[in-house]
Amino acid sequence: MTVLHTAPLWSGIGQFFLTFLGWAAYILGIGFVIYAALRLYESIRSTRFIRASMVFGLVVLCLLVLLESRLIMGPLTAGVLADVMALPFQNLPPAVGHVLVIGLILVVIIFTFRITFAHVMLIYRFIERIIGDAPPAGDEEDEPDQSHARFLGQRPQFSRYSAGRVAIDDSEDFGDEDEVGLEPEIDYLPPPPARRGGAANSKNSRNGRQPATPSRAAGRNPVAPAEQMVDEEIYYDDDFNSYDDYSDKTIAIEPEEYKYDEPLYFDDEDPLNDINVHKDKISMVPRGSYDPQPLDLTDLNQATYGVRQPPLALNDATVLDDEEDVIVHTPPAKDEQIKVRPNQRASLRQVQSAPPPRVREPLGSRKPASAGPSRAELAAANANAPHVQSTWQLPSMEILKAPDSVKAQLFGEDTAELAKLIQDTLRSFRVEAEVREEDISIGPTIIRFGIRPTGRPQMVQDEKTGRMVPVRDSAGQIIYETRTRVSRIMALQNDLALVLEAKTIRMEAPVPGRPYVGVEIPNKNSRLVTLREVLESKEYQAAKNKSMLSIGLGKDVAGMVRVGDLAKMPHLLIAGATGAGKSVMINTIIASILMQATPDDVRLLMVDPKMVELNMYNGIPHLLSPVVVEVEKVVSLLKNGISEMERRYRLFSQLGVRNLDGYRRLRAQKLAQGDTSLNNLPAIVIIIDELADLMMAAPEEVEGMICRLAQLARATGIHLVVATQRPSVDVITGLIKANIPTRISFMVSSAVDSRTIIDMGGAERLLGRGDMLYLPADAGRPERIQGSFLSDDEAQRLAEYWQQQIVQHALNLGVDPISGQPEPGWELKVDHADEFELEDELLDRAEEVVREQGRASISLLQRRLKVGYSRAARLIDLLEQHGIIGQSVDGGRAREVYDTPLNHGGHSLANEADDIMAEEKERNDFIRSQAARYRGSDNSRTPIDDDDDEN
Ligand SMILES: Nc1ncnc2c1ncn2[C@@H]1O[C@H](COP(=O)(O)OP(=O)(O)OP(=O)(O)O)[C@@H](O)[C@H]1O
User: Could you tell me which residue ranges the FtsK domain spans (predicted)?
Assistant: First the structure.
């Protein structure tokens, strides 16, 4: 305008615009220039971003502002157009005119810039945050900020690698500090090292776990620069077995001092983004630029220690045992804890004086130990002791590492975003479903989103507003006209995996007991579940009081502690690919037992063909026999187990009790009456670390004995824990599966393997490293659990604790320590599979049968003794070896019985022909069933034809 106005030729035009538009001519002129430039840019980039509505809105806005200036300043600079526009306002009071024009300006601004309520809220929050930014010092701890999102620990960009992290004492929420054994401390870990270190820097840090740059760290944390923690990823390191180093390097820094000083963004190449143990398994979620939220310590404590678990009606001081109706007093101090067995409780109440301690009792009094005073002798020496208080001391919880609470830390709204992403994706596929906030469960390694199928709702007109609103039932739930099918959601599994950029997602439809389909994706801020935090949980404490064989399994997808009871399982099959976490699980089981049960309560038998996994337990008093590493000795061990089982059965039937619990109750009653005739019978847990090796060596015998034990051992308190790396049908046969109903599947390589273990797919989508599907015997569907972790160090410490106790225990009793030797009756010998049947206990009955019948044949023994073909054939061989029957003659199946007192001439040609036919049939059936079994099914076995002539 100035140029036009001053140039002689164009001054008229300039004058016109200035007169007509006043000062607005400048604004509009500049606006047109910008508009022209933007259009030019649009045409160069072949893009379009100028909205006509916005241009129009800006012009109108400019004119309204011009009008307002005319109303305020009069007709001096506003031009003719403004005068014309001001005409309608002349008769109005000035205030009304201003209000009208300003109102119009606001309306035009709202429409032009498309301002919504969300924008207003954003600004409101921003202002609020600025105002509320300076809380009085020291307030944070007293009054934790509650305004954060509930998705604790879900902000990848604010993981422990990219920001400060917090280690919080749990003692506040977890009861007495002494009881829990954790020192109160608040550890703020340092911020990440500089990210602008260049490629070399980045590489170094990936390989060598680059420490925080001192100067930078010092800048961030002026309080304790020298105490910065070296930020190392050691948690899930392959060769990492202990997290000692981690906590050692954690040093307290004042929480108030910590500030994020730069926006954090996602960079694939940046090692600092290696936030997750499963980095190679999961992918990334795009990150926004959020400001970190303050951490709620209470929330974190609750998430870490499971305080959210519903309180259980437990009285720490006194536990009333319903079954035995006796009151048990818990030990006064944990260090002086002396284990009280359920069957000892009654006597404890009665006997208050301090009697001499008593040695642990042997399982049986079959053979004395070779060196030193035998256990049988020791037992006999103490036989008259009026009580059974054990002198073993249980380890205190301090022997296990305290849970490292730094893992769960800052939180954000990523989870909410993912939920929205899932919902939008489903909608884009025209699948009506919703993901509610309350349906999101956050576990230690997994987040589960619950997708509720919705549909087209029934609509009615609202009487007040006249609008159409969905019809709701009495519970306030929307009633749908047509519903979305679950199968439609399930069909989108891969599409969801795509948008969530997750390498593995697992869908469960429906989640048992919930009205939604579960989508499980890896939690990028995953956390180790330590055995100690599980054992310290209230749920475990409650379970422990009920059963000595409780196992701290881990935490489920909602972060709740999951506990198993081996006594109820009653046997457990663990399978999974190599490195998936089987050995850790077995160690966890053993450690759970060692933490809560004395050798008087539970005894262990271990088979470790890998030779290295369970060796460390050699020498603990719980072992009935040293850890078996030779496959040849396993048959002998299982045989010992079977004879112990049979011995207990005989004992129980004599005493008229039905199971070990009944026996214990009876014993407690007798002890209360001063009768010490009944020996203590501990539960026995047989742990086999690699079944495949055994099944290769002696498939039939091992399978037969495992099944026999599995079928009958429950009542006698003998439990099997069998693990295998090879979930194929020749290892986990149909028979073994049928007899071991409780199963745990870790990650496997294929859906076929998964089906072999848990009879359904899903385990192939697990993440490994303790991520498992737990299928209890009484549940139809498996449950996903992150297994508790026990480092080798802890296991070693626990084993050493018990090994030392043997010495201490023996010193207390004034006897030689006996350790590492098998219990009498549990000696193992190299027992080749072929020799197994040599001492077949059916031999006597077989002899009776053949003498009674005056003839001997396999089919006869099969029918009369109700045994399988191979065992009957073996019995015939044994009878022949013992000189009871003769050899088969001329291909005939029936054999002569020597010295037969009652030979009524039953050995006729007709009988022999029948026998031959029956036997042939049995043989064929047997071969067929064997073949079918190796193909994965042993259902093909045809029943024995009972038409066979017996007489
Ligand atoms: N519950 C868990 N939590 C965290 N990490 C685990 C857990 N269980 C196992 N891991 C990790 O996985 C690694 C392998 O576990 P483990 O040795 O138990 O595997 P495995 O299945 O026994 O393998 P293999 O059959 O080859 O012996 C462990 O060293 C550990 O780092």
Answer: 558-755
